[in-house]
Amino acid sequence: MENEIKYSQFTSEFKVRPDDIDMFNHVHNSTYFDYVLAARYEQMETYYKMSMEEFLSQGFGWVVRSAFVDYKRPLGLGDRFAVQTGIETINDKGCRVKFEITILKTGKVACDGWFDYVMIDIKTGRSVKVSEEMILKYSI
């Protein structure tokens, strides 16, 4: 059952590195996923105060079930950009995280989209129910 809470959004900043560039001289499409995952990893610890390590120590992990990216314009070598993410919904077994990547120099959106995550038991690899405590920690 999904709730109707409005969740906070957080922003992390990065710079395009040489190893992010593909043969067309811009960031490879799959690297945008890495940027979002890096931002979420940082934001889990910094803002939610429940890091990925804490989930792992409790025997849980988050896996991507599905993802959608709408590419609008490319990032190039040296571009500084912001990755804004926030939970859109939380349900019994996971959550949807929306994101937007903005080029800092121009203020224009490079891409946006969402990831659906499922929480799993690391030992079994099967989905598990998200606890009320976890939902409360992420409901900021």
Gist of the model:
The protein has 140 residues and is α+β, with helices and mostly antiparallel strands. The chain has helices spanning 29-46, 52-57, 132-138; strands spanning 9-15, 60-71, 80-90, 94-103, 109-121.
Characterise the protein shown here.
The chain is of the alpha+beta class and 140 residues long. The protein contains 3 helices and 5 strands. The protein has a 5-stranded antiparallel beta sheet with strand order 1-3-4-5-2. Strand 3 and strand 4 form a beta hairpin. The radius of gyration is 16 Å and the shape is elongated. 19% of the residues are buried.
Topology summary:
Elements: E1 9-15, H1 29-46, H2 52-57, E2 60-71, E3 80-90, E4 94-103, E5 109-121, H3 132-138
Antiparallel strand pairs: 1-3, 2-5, 3-4, 4-5
What keyword list fits this structure?
alpha+beta; 38% strand; 140 residues
**Termini distance?**
19 Å
Portion in strands: 35-45%
Number of contiguous helices: 3
**Over all CA atoms, what is the radius of gyration?**
16 Å
